[in-house]
Specification:
Layout: E1 3-11, E2 15-24, H1 30-47, E3 51-59, H2 61-75, E4 85-88, E5 97-107, E6 112-116, E7 119-127, E8 130-138, H3 146-162, E9 173-178, H4 181-198, E10 212-216, E11 219-220, E12 226-235, E13 241-243, E14 262-267, E15 270-278, H5 293-310, E16 318-325, H6 328-340, E17 345-349, E18 359-365
Parallel strand pairs: 3-4, 9-10, 16-17
Antiparallel strand pairs: 1-2, 2-5, 3-5, 4-11, 6-7, 7-8, 8-12, 9-12, 13-14, 14-15, 15-18, 16-18
Helix pairs in contact: 1-2, 3-4
């Protein structure tokens, strides 16, 4: 096999969740990498009678078509018509394909496909007393400018939630995929903050229930400026715990980014802890270890561990992790650390949200306690 397949599973009486991280063997040809990735994923899904809740493909733009063709050939009836998030980065040490992440579930009920204005945009899983919604790769290209696309994207997510009788208060986790992030991140933050105030997540008298989030310099494969994924817990309501600050880092909103450091909520097989995109930023909101990749990598991992501890989780509970490296030189610096930690890594080459940031990690954990 020309793929490293990391499978983490968590089981309860009512469901088993599977978190699959597939990374290619850098020595293999591109076609073989793509075919083996999806052969491995489809074997897991079929053998476990599991259905996809959310899926992301990370590659260069030229390699994305090869990945999608391999996915289609391998999945067959596993494909319910909901497209994965297709995310374009730069070539790394593994070659044009960085990897694939799948979150799947095996339960009595099968996820239902959700449509919006004729497009299949996500899935809802209904269980006794529980309901979960995922949306993937939501974008809108009608406006030529990045801030306009961001506004339309946020409105589209809002519309999908409202047609299910929900709102953004039910969303503990978002992912913001932002092409050329360094050119317009301040504009994006202004758009997001305005929506969060409008929706009651921020502002006077609110509880500041900002989702955990990643905002990273990966563009959607449709050529747009931005795309968005969400995980929403529609039922039970008010079951999410938000972590705005840690001992290591104060609120990201203090320096203009509207997200929580982490969120913890009930999922089909147990609680999930979503650690937001985390970097080498101190309690004052200042980048540390400037021009020092090793220092930023160590500080970032320390910050992630601090967040996990605050949320009553541990690194042994990690089920999916992405390391974002600004360049392949940073990735080379990261290699020894990556191999030393038994974390379910995918490594992607892209810009982080500040010019002086070289490295970022996002993580999902499912504590056993």
């Amino acid at each position: 096999m020309t793929v490293h397949l990391d499978i983490r599973s968590v089981e309860s009486a009512s469901a088993t969740e599977f978190y699959i991280s597939a990374a290619p063997d850098p020595k293999a040809p591109l076609q073989d990498q793509a075919q083996d990735i999806f052969a491995g994923i489809s074997d897991v899904l079929r053998s476990q009678k599991a259905h996809i809740l959310q899926e992301r493909l990370f590659s260069t733009e030229p390699a994305m078509e090869t990945l999608c063709q391999a996915r289609s050939a391998a999945y067959g009836d596993l494909d319910d018509g909901v497209a994965p998030a297709l995310l374009v980065g730069k070539e790394g040490l593994s070659g044009p394909i960085a990897g694939v992440q799948v979150h799947a579930v095996s339960s009595k009920n099968k996820p239902e496909v959700i449509g919006l204005k004729g497009d299949l945009v996500g899935r809802i899983l209904r269980m006794p007393g529980r309901a979960y919604l995922t949306l993937s790769g939501i974008s809108d290209l009608h406006d030529s400018q990045a801030p306009g696309q961001a506004k339309a994207m946020m409105k589209k997510v809002e519309a999908a939630l409202r047609q299910l009788g929900a709102d953004f208060l039910s969303v503990p986790r978002t992912w913001m995929w932002l092409k050329d992030i360094l050119d317009w991140y301040d504009d994006f933050n202004a758009v997001r903050t305005n929506f969060f105030v409008e929706w009651g997540l921020l502002g006077k008298g609110t509880r500041e229930t900002m989702p955990a989030s990643t905002g990273i310099g990966l563009g959607p494969a449709d050529g747009g400026h931005c795309a968005m994924d969400i995980m929403a817990v529609l039922e039970p309501t008010d079951c999410t715990q938000y972590l705005l600050t840690t001992g290591k880092q104060h609120s990201a909103f203090d320096y203009g980014s509207a997200f929580s450091r982490a969120a913890r909520s009930a999922m089909p097989a147990g609680d999930a802890v979503w650690v937001s995109g985390t970097a080498s930023i101190n309690a004052d909101g200042v980048t540390t270890h400037i021009d020092d990749a090793a220092g930023q990598i160590d500080a970032t991992i320390e910050n992630v561990r601090a967040v996990l501890a605050e949320m009553d989780a541990d690194e042994k509970d990690l089920v999916q992790v992405i390391a974002y490296c600004k360049t392949t030189d940073v990735e080379k610096e990261f290699e020894a650390t990556r191999k030393a930690l038994n974390w379910p890594w995918i490594t992607v080459i892209c810009d982080v949200c500040r010019p002086d940031l070289l490295f970022e990690i996002e993580a999902t954990a499912m504590p056993k306690n």
